[in-house]
Amino acid sequence: MEATDDDTLYDLESNGRGSESGISMPTSTSEESSAQRTSYQSQQSQQSHQSQQSQRSNMELQQPLHVDYILVAEFSIDKGPTMEYQYPAPISGDEHMLAELMLPDQTHRRNQDWTIFFLHKEEEETEDDPGQQPLIYVLNLVNTKRAKVKAMAICTRHSFLHIYKPILLLALEEYFKKPTQETLAEIFVAVNTMDMSCVPHLSVFERQILATSENKEMFIEKFEEMMPAAPDAAGEQAVMTPEGGTRTTYFEIGPGNQRNKLINGKLGKIRDSHEYETSVTYKGVKIPIKVPVAVMPETVGDFSLIQLITTFSTPHSQNPQPFPLHPHLTTNGPYTHPVIVLVNALLTQKRIVFLGHGRPSGEVANHVLAACYLASGGVLKGFTRHAFPYTDISKIEELLYVNGFIAGVINPMFANQARWWDVLCDIDTGRIRISPELKPPPLTDGLSFFNLNPNMGVADYVKHDTMDNAFMEDISHCISSRFGEWAVRARWRDWVLRFTRMATAFEEAVYGASALWIGHEENHVIKGHGYVWADEALKTRDLTANAARIEGWRGTRSYLTLVQESAQLYQAKPIKIVDLHHQIDRLRVLRLSHEDSEKIYMVLKHYVDDYEEINQLLCVIPETQNGIFPIAFGLFHPNQKVRFAVVELLEKISTHMAGRHFFNNMNRFQRLAYIRLKQERENSGGFSPVATEAANGVGSFSTTTTPTTAAGVPRFAAFGPTGRGGP
C-alpha cells in the first residue's frame, strides 16, 4: 500500500540513521504528522527520557539497528483500534490503519494472537534488490487481560523475525504493568544491543551450500574465523574487552563434533552451524536467541511447509474433487493435486486468498508465508513483497489494486465474492477453489508451437503428463515418513529449479534464445548448457506438458527478477568457461561414452581448483541429488589418466572447508577405490600425497577434523578465508 503524503523525517538523535523514514502506508495529513513530530520531540526533551536517549544514541553509533520501531496499539470501546505509542519516532502513515492491522478481527475472543505484516521503506533501495524498496517486517503480539486488548509490534529489517517472539511476550507483559514510553525505551535498547558481530559472512555460493545441507558442521570454521582472536600455540590468547584490561582465555577442546569453546572459564559448544547463538538481556532475564545464518529468499518467519501441504493434501487424498479446467492452473487435468494448483497460481501471478474463519490470524499468516516459499523454493523472488499475511475487509479496495497478491483473511465474506480472487484456499475445509470468473489465457506462440490451445479438453491434459502428481506422492511419503521440514523444503527447491531450467529450454525452443541463460557457449571448452533429458522424446513430453504453465509465468514479477539475477549470478561465477550444472547432469542422466565422460572429468580437474571454484561445483551436487557420487563414479573409468584426474579433484574437494563433508559421504566402495588409486599414483611418482588415509573409516577425513598442510596450517586457511587470491 503506497504512500500518498510526505514522509516523516527524524534526526540522528531520534533514531541513529539521519535519513528519511517513510513507510508506504496511506498517511495522515501533513498538519497531523507535524503535530505528532512536535509532540514526540517535546516528550523526548523531558528529563525523564534523557538517560535512555543517550544510551540509545551511543548504541546506534556502534552497530546498525536490529529493530527500527516498536509500536503499541489498544482497542477502545469508544474509538476502536487506536495507536498508543510509536517508538523511537512516529511512522509516517495512517495510524488508524496500522492499529487495525495490529488488532485483528475477533481478537477479543482469544487471549493471545500473533500477526505478521510488511511495510515498505521509501527513499531507499535494498542491497539485494536494487531498485526495490526495502521491506520492514512487523511481528505483532495481541493480548487480552482484564478486558483490555493491547498489541505490541516489533519492526525489523530481519526476515527471521520469529527470533523476537520470546522477547515480545515478556515486553507486552511488562507493558501491561507499566504502560509508559520508558518501558518501550528499555525494550528498544535491549533488542538493539543483541550481539550479532560474530555471525559468519557467507558468499552467495557458501550460503546456498549451507542452506541445502543438513550437516550441522558445514562451515563451522567460519564461526572460528569470526572469533575476536585465535588461540596461540599454547592454546591461550589474551583479548582486551571494550572497557579495557579484561583478559579472556580461549581454548578449543576436543576434535570434530566434540569441538567446544572455553571462554573465561565457561564451556560452550557450537551445536549447529546453521544457527548463530546469541542472547538478549531484558529485565535481568537472559533470553537465548538462535539467528539463522543462511536465510534463503522469500523465507520469512518460522512457517511450516509441511503444515501447508498437509492442510490441502489430506481432504484431496480422502475424497478427490475435480477442478474446472484452466491451462495455467490444472496442468494435470481436473484432478490436479490442489498443492500443484496453488503453486501454479503463485507462479502465474494469480490473486490468491487464504481464508481461515474463526482461526487465529497468526495461523492464517503462516499459511501465506509458507505459500510464498512454496513457489520460491529459495530460487525465485517477488512473492513476499506482494503478500499480505493478514488483512481485513476494510482494505479490500487497496488490495484489489495489487496485481497477483497473496492475502490471509479470517472474514468468511471473502468466500462469497469470487470477483475478489482467482484462487481461494479454505484452511477450514482444506479445499482450494478456482474462481468461475477467471478467464482462460490468450493463445500464445508457445502454445501454438506445441499444438496446444487455451480451451484444451480433459483428453489433452491426460495425453501430456507433467509428473506433478507423482512428485506430490513423493512429498507425501517424505511427510508420512517424518523426514522433516528440511527434506520437504529441499525437494521443493529442486522442483522449482527444475521448472526454471525447463523454462529456459522452452524459450530457446520456441523463441530461439532465453533471457534466463547468460553465457557464450562458443567460448566453452565443452559445448552444452541447461537442463538435460535422457532423450528427445522426454524433452518434448516435458516441454509440451509444461508449456501453458511456463507461458503463464513468463512476464511475471518472479520471472523478470530471475532474469536480472541470472545476469548478476553469472558475473559472480568464477568458472564461466563451462556450464558445471549441465555437465554434472550429463554424468547423472546420460549413458556417456568413455571419451565424453573423459572430457568432463578432465575439465573439472583443470578448472575446479581454488576455494570459490570448488564452492561453485558443490552448489550443483547437493545432498538431495546424491552429492559427490557423479564425480566419485569417475574413480572406475577405464582410462588411468582419468582415474588419477578424479583422485586429484577429490583431493582438492577433501581439503576444502565444505567439500570435506561431501567427501566424507562417499560410500565405502568409493573410499577403497580412492585409497587404492592414491597408492598407485604415489607409486608412479606422479603426485605428492595429501590425506593418505582418507575415507578408510578411521582416517582424518572420517571425522570433522580440519585437514592441514605439512606445516600444520589448515588446508583451506593457507589461502585466506576466501581461498586462493583472497585477502
Automatic annotation (TrEMBL):
Annotated GO biological process: actin cortical patch localization
Transmembrane spans: none
Compositionally skewed regions (Polar residues) per UniProt: 16-32
Low complexity composition bias: residue spans: 33-57
Renumbered residue ranges of the record's region Disordered: 1-58
Pfam families linked: Afi1, SPA
Biased composition (Acidic residues): 1-10
Cellular component, GO annotation: plasma membrane
Domain of life per record: Eukaryota
Protein name: Uncharacterized protein
Source organism (scientific name): Orbilia oligospora
